[in-house]
């Protein structure tokens, strides 16, 4: 048992060392969403890294039914008040309702049409990141309670620890980059 726990910890440390570079193409989206919802953009990057390794995983649907690059459960995206939302949140939601901003607003969901195409799509990178920013903001991140917001996103202490680790790593990188820019001026 001790060996298994040690191996698990080692694997976790090794895994954390991979994927510590944020893909440049996502940074403007993280920043725009973070500014709109008053949260740190590096928190969005940390979630994206943990959820789908910056959208590099083979599937955008988890075994539990979470969807898209930021892994939203359908009932969280469209709203838990939607008829058919129950249990863990997979729900019985037709696609036309799941992506309809008016339906999402009616049922108190977190889905956002960030790119203005009339569809709030959990599989669209912009919509997904803005939706995650919306959710994290309303879960406490806008008030500075980052840990609480992360726990609301996924009720797992390990998840919270992993997201916080990447959040700190990405914050350190952001500060170092800003410092270099200031020094160059």
Element-level helix/strand string:
HHHHHHHHH
Model regions low in confidence, pLDDT < 50 over at least 5 residues: 1-14
Counting DSSP H or I runs of 4 or more residues, the number of helices is 9
Beta fraction of the residues? under 5%
Shape: globular
Considering DSSP H and I runs of 4 or more, what fraction of the residues is helical? 55-70%
Characterize the biggest β-sheet. Answer: none
Distance between the ends: 55 Å
Overall pLDDT metric: 90
Structural class by sheet pairing and helices: mainly alpha
Radius of gyration: 17 Å
Q: How many beta-strand segments?
A: 0
Question: What is the topological layout?
Answer:
Elements: H1 2-17, H2 27-37, H3 41-52, H4 74-78, H5 95-98, H6 101-106, H7 125-138, H8 146-153, H9 157-184
């Amino acid at each position: 048992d001790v060996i298994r726990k040690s191996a698990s910890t080692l694997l976790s440390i090794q895994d954390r060392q991979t994927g510590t570079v944020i893909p440049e193409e996502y940074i403007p989206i993280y920043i725009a969403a973070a500014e709109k919802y008053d949260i740190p953009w590096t928190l969005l990057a940390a979630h994206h890294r943990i959820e789908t390794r910056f959208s590099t995983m083979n599937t955008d649907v988890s075994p539990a039914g979470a969807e898209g690059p930021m892994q939203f459960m359908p009932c969280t995206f469209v709203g838990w008040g939607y008829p058919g939302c129950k249990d863990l949140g997979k729900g019985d939601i037709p696609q036309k309702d799941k992506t309809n901003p008016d339906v999402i607003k009616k049922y108190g969901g977190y889905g956002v049409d960030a790119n203005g195409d009339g569809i709030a799509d959990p599989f669209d990178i912009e919509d997904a990141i803005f939706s995650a920013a919306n959710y994290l903001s309303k879960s406490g991140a806008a008030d500075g309670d980052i840990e609480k917001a992360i726990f609301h996103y996924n009720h797992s202490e390990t998840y919270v620890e992993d997201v916080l680790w990447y959040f700190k790593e990405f914050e350190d990188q952001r500060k170092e980059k800003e410092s270099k820019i200031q020094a160059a001026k």
